[in-house]
């Protein structure tokens, strides 16, 4: 048991030094998607290993068939939980470079409004700045107390922005070494500048590509129109049947395993005060397109969807061609929640489509991924500890939110390490990650460090 | 009034000479789409003018901004009709050349089965062989009787295979010179080897491109799926609503002006014995997709359609992208029959679409062409004369058929010259026009000449 206050003081006192370290890490252009930067990725990994060793971690660069992993271990007092902290040191490419106001690899601290400063540069928010908030919290703990409040394993990946090809084999091969009581994943954000958030649910995903085939060649619509089956018409009928007039998915069994969100959670989301007009207005829309009678936050956080991500068939160039295509195809994806079963959803969808294909036509399916939803139990003790710790640091109490999309690492930790994740991060929606002029709030970086100190302290108790 | 029998005899006796002339014309590579062959196109026009002059026509090459026209005039006995004969001397390119069994410009007469000979080469069927059947009939008439049975104007075009850019201006500029009582258009075919045909109807066409716009940018389906409007879903709903479960178009007013085909015509079509299995089997299908309870011939010849010729939206590359597109679009065309009004159909369709677009989304339309159907009155006297004349020549009586597609020249004659067309030709479905190894049956060429002699004789009476 250690005292928190001096750790927080140390973080305040060490802010400038921590900014220098972050600037050093940002300076390494560790772009994982471009093979030309492979050596820079390794350099970032080595930089992190050196820094973690300096703090007192047993740290090493671990080779993979792609960019290396960083793994670090530090003991904690007996009786405290063992946590795995995950982040990634690779960054997105920076083009178009001419859209940047500053050199993307030369981090600047800029005052953008009275009392509000931001750190600019590629990776400041995604994910170098975020992961360093945790490293700085550990550093301060060690400095003040000579120890960490609990046992910590760190895993930094170098391929998050390029599909994480080495991650699953690495988790599988090192499951024993990496397994902890739970994971802390920092690749997420706050509700708003004043309100910290813990993501407790992530929707799952099933992707399907369907190709409807009719005649054995493209036909002239003058010669065959009105007699020959048109695959675009068949496909349109299939897709149009997927939702009813109330936006509900009509595929039999689709809602099996979907639970109603507890009313206190719905109330919490309601209290965030985000209207449909506000949420959709930002993208030029105003009317929620999903199930009627549910708020936009419930729709994107706690309800499953069927979306059509792409469609193509026939002549799509300039002008006109009076053709009846031989085939047409669509990419369809389902966002899953709670206990929906990806395999059952896929099977039900395929049966639903097959039923609607005329006897002289055919359909082919191609599956793309399938992952169940992730749902943290709302009554988990470490969840309430983290929530209270965050609420102590920020102007407003922490909220439990969900994410409409998936974060693959969370599913992978569950699959390969049998471990749940607590998703806490300090990014903001306007951080422009993956875009020119990425930034991270100075308050995110500073109060983020303090938040981790508080969370580690709370978890250890 | 002249006697027909000696003209037919002269055609029989002159067959070899007529084949030599056709071979001379085929030898000129008058490919209109390739500027490298411009001089050859002119040479073909000059060859035709010389030949028509030899027969006794007042003939000339007429310059246009593209390839020249051939116009020829010949007087006829007072009280006989004035007919305009139309054909085209230009041909399709010949590539891939290695697919040809013989030089495409060196016409051969080949025996392909006992008693069945074909003429091989580019343009033998489309359209040099066809137009020469008419020229040879005129030649024989003049030779035997020193006169033609009626007044004849000939128009040969050199841009039919390249979109006829000069045709409309030429018709407009020379309307007075070219206007006749009706036109004979030879660019069509027989029902089968033994059954001549007159095309009495051509479907019209309305093309529309619609683009549904939702959010002002592409969205991540994780972040917005279930809340934001998806333009592919909206487009699918619109297209799926165009046909009811019986294949009937649901657009209000769509069938205004559509007439039921006279029962004797339906019976004639029925007697042709073409089953849906046979017609569709050839393209790998078996079930008619149009209005239920109508034969395939009625569907493609006498019923209007709505066809979807192309559709595109969202991510259509390899793999998967969980995007909600900002827009999606489709190309839609309507084949029109009888008195359907292209403008009204277009307006009705646009209203139909607009009604189905959510209030926060929009739709844009782009019109592509619009032409009404062409329908010869079944009781026209020159139609029955031509039908009887054809029936006298061939093993089986002539049938009145229709065409699912449009032949622009027929509409142009109606628009610019106020003149109906009688469509008679001797091509067969297996003539491979536009493809390697184009051929024309020797029987088409020989009996085609005799058929025109009979038709001219009948029209003059």
UniProtKB/TrEMBL annotation, chains A, B:
Residues 201-359 form the Peptidase M20 dimerisation domain. It comes from the Bacteria. Coiled coil: none annotated. GO terms for molecular function: metal ion binding; peptidase activity. Keywords: Hydrolase, Metal-binding, Protease. The keyword Protease applies. GO terms for biological process: proteolysis. The keyword Hydrolase applies. InterPro entries: Cyt/Met_Dipeptidase, Peptidase_M20, Peptidase_M20_dimer. NCBIfam families: PRK07907.1 (NF005914), PRK09104.1 (NF006579). PANTHER family: BETA-ALA-HIS DIPEPTIDASE, SUCCINYL-DIAMINOPIMELATE DESUCCINYLASE. This is Acetylornithine deacetylase/Succinyl-diaminopimelate desuccinylase. It comes from Mesorhizobium australicum.
């Amino acid at each position: 048991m250690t005292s928190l206050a001096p750790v927080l003081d140390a973080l305040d006192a060490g802010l400038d030094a921590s900014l220098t370290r972050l600037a050093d890490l940002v300076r390494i252009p560790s772009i994982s998607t471009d093979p030309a930067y492979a050596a820079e990725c390794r350099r970032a990994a080595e930089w992190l290993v050196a820094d973690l060793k300096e703090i007192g971690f047993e740290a090493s660069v671990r080779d993979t068939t792609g960019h290396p992993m960083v793994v670090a271990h530090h003991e904690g007092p007996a009786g405290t939980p063992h946590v795995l902290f995950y982040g990634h040191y690779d960054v997105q490419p920076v083009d178009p470079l001419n859209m940047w106001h500053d050199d993307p690899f030369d981090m600047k601290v800029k005052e953008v409004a009275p009392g509000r400063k931001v750190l600019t540069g590629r990776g400041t928010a995604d994910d170098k700045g975020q992961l360093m908030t945790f490293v700085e919290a550990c550093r301060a703990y060690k400095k003040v107390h000579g120890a960490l409040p609990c046992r910590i394993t760190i895993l930094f990946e170098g391929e998050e922005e390029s599909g994480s090809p080495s991650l699953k084999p690495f988790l599988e091969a090192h499951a024993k070494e990496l397994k902890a009581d739970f994971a802390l994943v920092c690749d997420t954000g706050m509700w708003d500048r004043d309100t910290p958030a813990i993501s407790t649910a992530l929707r799952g995903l099933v992707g399907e590509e369907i190709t409807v085939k009719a005649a054995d060649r493209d036909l002239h619509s003058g010669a065959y129109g009105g007699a020959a089956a048109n695959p675009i018409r068949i496909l349109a009928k299939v897709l149009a049947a997927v939702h009813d007039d109330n936006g509900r998915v009509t595929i039999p069994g689709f809602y099996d395993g979907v639970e109603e969100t507890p009313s206190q959670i719905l109330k919490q989301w309601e209290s965030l005060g985000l209207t449909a007009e506000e949420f959709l207005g930002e993208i030029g829309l105003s009317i929620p397109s999903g199930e009627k009678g549910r708020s936009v936050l419930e729709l994107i956080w706690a309800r499953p969807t069927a979306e059509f991500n792409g469609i193509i068939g026939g002549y799509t160039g300039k002008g006109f061609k009076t053709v009846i295509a031989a085939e047409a195809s669509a990419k369809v994806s389902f966002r899953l929640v709670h206990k929906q079963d990806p395999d059952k959803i896929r099977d039900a969808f395929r049966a639903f489509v097959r039923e609607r294909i005329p006897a002289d036509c055919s359909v082919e399916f191609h599956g793309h991924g399938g992952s169940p939803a992730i749902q943290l139990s709302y009554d988990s003790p470490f969840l309430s500890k983290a929530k209270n710790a965050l609420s102590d640091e920020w102007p407003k109490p922490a909220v439990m939110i969900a994410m409409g999309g998936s974060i693959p690492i969370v599913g992978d930790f569950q699959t390969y390490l049998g471990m749940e994740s607590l998703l806490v991060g300090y990014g903001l929606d306007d951080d422009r990650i993956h875009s020119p002029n990425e930034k991270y709030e100075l308050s995110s970086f500073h109060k983020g460090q303090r938040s981790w100190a508080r969370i580690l302290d709370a978890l250890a108790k």
